[in-house]
Design a protein that fits this description.
The chain is an alpha/beta fold and about 140 residues long. It contains 5 helices and 7 strands, in the order H-E-H-E-H-E-E-E-E-H-E-H.
């Protein structure tokens, strides 16, 4: 019984609504990028938020393996970041940190998405969801 209680303490499944929760969400993303030790996998229709790009570049320089699948991108990414433009239309907004925490929702990683748009974002470490998203990334890698 104690194990079940403690495992709930470390699990989270948070839903956010932008622009109201923009500060919280940005802080969560920053924390997730900064705390990633092994991998960051991103599938994002449009990624150009300079603050996040700089943090991804820093993570790459410290040895985090980063894969970005995109439809549109602007910004200068570190040479160690693997950038993939897929053959098929990509409209998802997903990031997986160390294969354990998933960010998904409607917001692209653009400044405007966080500042002006109405968006919905979920950040979770629910094992079932994380497993499904990791399988999705396996499919994306096959489309390169």
């Amino acid at each position: 019984m104690l194990f079940m209680f403690t495992s709930k303490l470390f699990s989270y499944d948070n839903l956010y609504f932008l622009p109201k929760d923009k500060k919280i969400v940005k802080a969560e993303i920053i924390k997730l990028i900064n705390n990633s030790n092994n991998t960051i996998d991103i599938a994002m229709y449009n990624i150009n938020y300079e603050k996040f790009i700089k943090l991804l570049n820093k993570a790459s320089k410290r040895g985090v393996k980063i894969n970005i699948f995109y439809e549109k991108k602007n910004g200068k990414f570190h040479k160690n970041i693997n950038l993939h433009k897929l053959k098929t239309k990509l409209h998802t907004k997903i990031a997986i940190f160390d294969k354990k925490v998933v960010y998904f929702g409607s917001a692209n990683w653009k400044k405007k998405s966080f500042k002006e748009n109405y968006e919905v974002i979920n950040i979770t470490n629910d094992k079932n969801k994380v497993e499904q998203f990791n399988k999705f990334f396996t499919q994306l890698k096959e489309d390169i």
